[in-house]
């Protein structure tokens, strides 16, 4: 049953093809098809609609949900047994946004590896919403993210507080003033960006934190921005910002780490009112047992926190 479940998982991850899944498993397509057919007879249900590409039946979807749960339980059992046996080895899967990964992870991983040299840290980078889905699907052991709405099935603990600021190249600021549309710094500090209506913007995708906050600011300011570019990667947006291509949002505490003090001198950094602060949390799947490596990694990360959580 366990072997057949693994084979069914591999089919799903191999472009919904028996032939590709068989190749990944190192067996013939006939052997795989026979094992899947035996599993369906055992369950009394068809798991796949056999056409190209393969599709799961309703029974297959239900089976996949239980299979993911079994896989998580199996992994958790292995971790707990290794902890009991004192074999502090394994792979710790950590999800983090691109920007935080670059700005924060090097010293955290360095110190963690000093304490747990047998643990390999596997980073998975992406947007906050992507990280939450990977955590809930069992593909991550730990996610560092803004968990808006406290999703079901995840245990959270505060890490630190972030605040978005508006970043504008000084050259663009002067161009706007010369064109007769000078930005109103006092109004911007209160969350009113209407004086920047003529300014192009460099934005994250709406699903990200910066995209979500930007949408709130524009709604509050009563205009739709001219968007020069969008990217999930804040570093790309900051690079474009440095070329005077537009204004962007970025967590204030990471600017020095990402750009350095010399490059920051060419930029104006502006607070942009209420509703731009949020808390970054550690998220782990809700479970009766948590791998000790997760606790050690969290403790190490807290020693490097850029700002205490509020």
Structure description:
- There is one protein chain.
- The protein has 310 residues and is an alpha/beta fold.
- The protein has helices at residues 2-12, 18-25, 29-43, 58-85, 98-115, 128-136, 170-178, 185-189, 209-221, 234-242, 255-259, 261-264, 292-303; strands spanning 48-49, 55-56, 90-96, 119-125, 142-145, 154-169, 200-203, 226-230, 247-251, 267-271, 277-285.
- Strands 3, 4, 5, 6, 7, 8, 9, 10 and 11 form a nine-stranded mixed beta sheet that branches. It has a two-stranded antiparallel ribbon with strand order 1-2.
- The chain starts with a helix and ends in a 7-residue tail after the last helix.
Would you identify the regions where 5 or more consecutive residues have pLDDT less than 50? 4-8, 10-14
What is the arithmetic mean of pLDDT?
Answer: 86
**Number of helical segments?**
13
Oligomer: single chain
Please give the largest β-sheet: 9 strands, mixed
- What is the general shape? elongated
- Tell me the total number of β-strands: 11
Structural class, from secondary structure content? alpha/beta
What is the N-to-C order of secondary-structure elements (H for helix, E for strand)? Answer: HHHEEHEHEHEEHHEHEHEHHEEH
Radius of gyration: 24 Å
Gap between N and C termini: 48 Å
Query: Can you give the helix content as a percent range?
Result: 40-55%
Strand-residue fraction? 15-25%
What descriptive keywords fit this protein?
310 residues; alpha/beta; two-stranded antiparallel sheet; 13 helices; 11 strands; 47% helix
């Amino acid at each position: 049953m366990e072997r057949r479940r693994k084979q069914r998982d591999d089919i799903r991850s191999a472009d919904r093809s028996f032939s590709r899944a068989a190749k990944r498993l190192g067996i013939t397509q006939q052997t795989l098809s026979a094992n899947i057919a035996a599993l369906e007879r055992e369950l009394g249900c068809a798991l796949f609609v056999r056409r190209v590409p393969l599709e799961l039946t309703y029974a297959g979807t239900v089976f996949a949900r239980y299979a993911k749960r079994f896989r998580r339980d199996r992994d958790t059992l292995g971790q707990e047994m290794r902890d009991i046996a004192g074999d502090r080895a394994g792979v710790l899967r950590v999800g983090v946004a691109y920007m935080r990964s670059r700005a924060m992870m090097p010293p955290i991983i360095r110190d963690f590896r000093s304490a747990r040299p047998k643990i390999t840290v596997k980073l998975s980078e992406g947007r906050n919403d992507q990280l939450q889905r990977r955590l809930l699907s069992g593909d991550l052991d730990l996610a560092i993210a803004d968990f808006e709405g406290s999703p079901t099935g995840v245990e959270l603990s505060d890490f630190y507080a972030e605040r978005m600021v508006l970043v504008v190249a000084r050259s663009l600021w002067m161009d706007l003033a010369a064109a007769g549309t000078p930005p109103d710094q006092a109004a911007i500090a209160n969350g009113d960006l209407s004086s920047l209506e003529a300014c192009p913007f460099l934005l994250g995708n709406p699903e990200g934190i910066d995209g979500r906050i930007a949408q709130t600011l524009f709604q509050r300011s009563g205009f739709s921005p001219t968007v020069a570019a969008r990217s999930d990667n804040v570093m790309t947006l900051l690079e474009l910002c440095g070329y005077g291509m537009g204004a962007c949002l970025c967590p204030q505490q990471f600017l020095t780490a990402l750009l350095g003090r010399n490059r920051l001198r060419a930029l104006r950094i502006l607070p942009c009112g209420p509703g731009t602060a949020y808390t970054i949390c550690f998220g782990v799947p809700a479970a009766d047992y948590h791998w000790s490596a997760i606790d050690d990694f969290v403790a190490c990360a807290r020693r490097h926190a850029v700002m205490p959580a509020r």
